[in-house]
Amino acid sequence: MDDLSIKKCVPCDTKDLRPMTEEAANNLIQQVTKWNLVKEGGVLKLNRSWKVKTFMKGLAFFEEVARLAEAEGHHPDLHLVGWNNVKIDIWTHSVGGLTENDFILAAKINGLDLHHLLSKKVAE
């Protein structure tokens, strides 16, 4: 298996880009620990949640993810729920489902050093 964290997202406006099958997604999910494969409204997505120390740490968390997403040209849905719960949903909006880009971004988010922002109860 290729290391997803060293791959680069491809432009989503490529006409050949198609959503992957659920079977393909189930194979790739094994490479992005702690991410969940969910189906919402018939659309496959990746999601993951974290608990941060404070509201401001949640915003700083999103800023780190946003820098990465901008560099990759692939942008997740970011949610701050309550004052200290952050959630990220990743899917390729332009194809209405998952592509390898989503797994690449999830792997790269996993590689970010965000522990200083996380609640000690769940930080690893």
From TrEMBL:
Source domain of life: Eukaryota
The UniProt record lists the keyword Transmembrane: no
GO molecular function, one term: 4-alpha-hydroxytetrahydrobiopterin dehydratase activity
GO BP annotations, alphabetical order: tetrahydrobiopterin biosynthetic process
InterPro entries reported for this sequence: PCD_sf (IPR036428), Pterin_deHydtase (IPR001533)
Record keywords: Lyase
Gene3D superfamilies: Transcriptional coactivator/pterin dehydratase
PANTHER family per the UniProt record, alphabetical: PTERIN-4-ALPHA-CARBINOLAMINE DEHYDRATASE
Protein name: 4a-hydroxytetrahydrobiopterin dehydratase
The species this protein was found in: Escallonia herrerae
